[in-house]
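Kindly review this protein for my students:
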Amino acid sequence: MADAEVQIAMSHWAPRFIQNGVDYNDFVATTGRCASWAQWLPEWNRTADSAAELALEAEAGNHRRTAGYAWLRAAVNRHFGKFVWLLDRDLHAEATLRSVQELLSAHRCLDTHAERIEVPFAGAKLVANLRRPSGEGRPPLVVLIPGLDSTKEEFFHLEEAFLQRGMATLSIDGPGQGEVGLELPIRHDYEVGVGAMLDAIAGRDDLDLERIGIFGVSLGGYYAPRVAAREPRARAVVGLAGPFNFGDCWDQLPPMTKLTFMVKARAGGEAEARERSSELDLAGVCHDIAVPALYVTGRRDGLIPWQQTERIARETPQGEFVIYEDGNHGCSNLSSQVRPAIADWMRDRLDEVSAG
């Protein structure tokens, strides 16, 4: 029987794995080999390595689409191996960087024309993947913001929901996230990083930068309202399962999530991490959001209580609130319903900007 942490990971996040591209059979086989949490990343690496081997074989045979989807499987499997696994920091970092390269290989083989954007920031750099929809001259742009343990490598299928509706996507790794998190710690004022990224792409004639939407999930659902409140280029915002005050959620977080925050915030221990988590607070921020705002959550969210997200909506002047009665954290168990609804809402709001 699997140990407690393996069971916690599966109970909280299994639907999230599947919605973001983990093959169900890979999920069953890999978790079936994990009797202990110590085995989690090594076994997911094993699964990812198998997909990477298939990708290399397909590339050698000039089967680029087969290779591309195999690279995508490798990237997302490896990402979910290390997402909240920090028992060996070096192994975590290695998996992070390999996942980055595997996703870039997927984009290359699938001819998505994704661009890697790097921006100097705080003595290091911020990184994002930019994708544009086909057949659109100057599409609006949606900035996609991960949470505590998600990264741009998790967002391929999320991006598709916006791309299919004629919006470009900019999936960011900000401070404390993904490859950037290996150098820069979490900071409460995430909007500073988004501002630097938008400065870097300003002046492009292949994007309509008068129509910029912001989307964030989980802890990104805290970051996104901050961006909307402080970044004047934002025209609409969606927060999915975000906390109003992350510190208020601390006691119910799984132990691996607490450790992840402690490491990514560069805290000296759990007591300092708890204190730092309370700095991620939207008090006095939401009333400055002057653009259309949608906040979505699930009543069965076991990580961020739905009342946290409802409070963000209540304190936002144009805040709309939607709760899915059967939704879990991030409503990942209702992906086929929630993602299209969010993408449609965003497209409608950005169209209103051009119409107005």
Q: What stands out?
A: The chain is about 45% helix and 15% strand. The beta strands are 115-121, 124-131, 140-145, 168-173, 208-217, 234-240, 293-298, 319-324. The chain has two domains: 1-111, 114-356.
